[in-house]
Amino acid sequence: MFGYRVPAPNEAMLISGGKNSKGASPFRVVTGHGAFVMPVFRKVRFLTLAMCEAEVTEVCVTKQAIALTVRAVIAFKVGNDTESIVNAGQRFLSDQDQMSVLTGRIFAGHLRSIIGSMTVEEIITERQKLATEVLDGSAVEMAKIGLTVDALQIQSIDDMKLGYIAAMAAPHNAAIQRDAQIAQAVANKTAAEAEQESQRTQAEYARQTSIVQARYRAEVEAAQAQAGQAGPLAQARAQQEVIDARTELAQREAELRQQQLVAEVIKPADAEAERIRILAVAEAEKMRIQAEAAASHNRVALDRMLIDQLPQIVKEAGRGLSGANVNILNGADGLGEMAAGLVGQGLSILDSVKRGLSTPPAPAPAAAPEANGQAPAKPELTA
Q1: Helix axes 98-115, 127-144, angle to 10 degrees
Q2: Max Cα distance, the chain (Å)
Q3: Where is the composition biased (Low complexity) (predicted)?
Q4: Is the pLDDT of residue 334 over 50?
Q5: Which of 68, 251, 303, 334 could form a disulfide with 293 if both were Cys (CB 3.0 to 4.6 A apart)?
Q6: Where are the alpha helices (DSSP H) in the chain?
């Protein structure tokens, strides 16, 4: 808005040119907010409220007439109240840098005055007291010009190579060095004792280690000697165990081979031999029956037919035997008994057939064959 001015947060706006009804100050002070300024009729200036710094380096003479160079730093600013702003504005508004110069001069005078009433020892050991007295002495003068001091720091105190401060510190340095030497001697003694204890510990450890190593070597040598003595015996036992294992394995292989031979060669050969023997027995029985049939006049044809059938019966039985999966418990004797049983069964069948055929048939009512002029029919054998 035209004519409305606002100061910065660290500034005070001074408005002059109008009648100030709030007090006797020659201008109006505005901080923290803006104000309408009538152009041409009002004039606005700004005064800084920020922190400022002033350095002081002053040669001061103590109560003991010893010259000291004192360096100090003062932190100050314009007060926040209206009275301080008005006082500072009337003095520094045209040249605000003069605040640091004037503050340095004020504090230099107070430093010379305060140090002149103190000894070097008090100045060195009581710097805070010196700073407090300087602040208290300059507070009234600083308030008159609208300034407040936030801090005063004494940076250094120098006797300009006179040696007084060094001489004053010499007893303390000597005591400190003496204490340091004593402490160093105690530390060296403690270190030496610790070193000796460490050496004794290392020697004891080395001695115990050598004893343990000697025992270990003795045990190892004894074990090696015992192992050397037991080595041949253990080797012989191992070889004997190997021989026994091989012997047992050979026996098992021989038994297995024997069982294989019996199953593959002997049993088939025995079965074949038994078959041949049964056939021979059947052939001999055939010859005997043929002989008996030749001696008979009435049964020659019938017996001949039965005899011709008998080898076939026995042959079929033998063929069934050769292809059957039969377990023979008592070897060749059992096989012979079974074959004899088959022959006996064949002969029993043959006898049954003979008896059945030898039974005379019932008489038929038909006329005799001779009456019809026909020849008597031959009996037929049904196989």
Answers
A1: 130
A2: 203
A3: 367-377
A4: yes
A5: 303
A6: 82-92, 98-115, 120-125, 127-144, 164-261, 267-295, 300-323, 331-358, 369-372
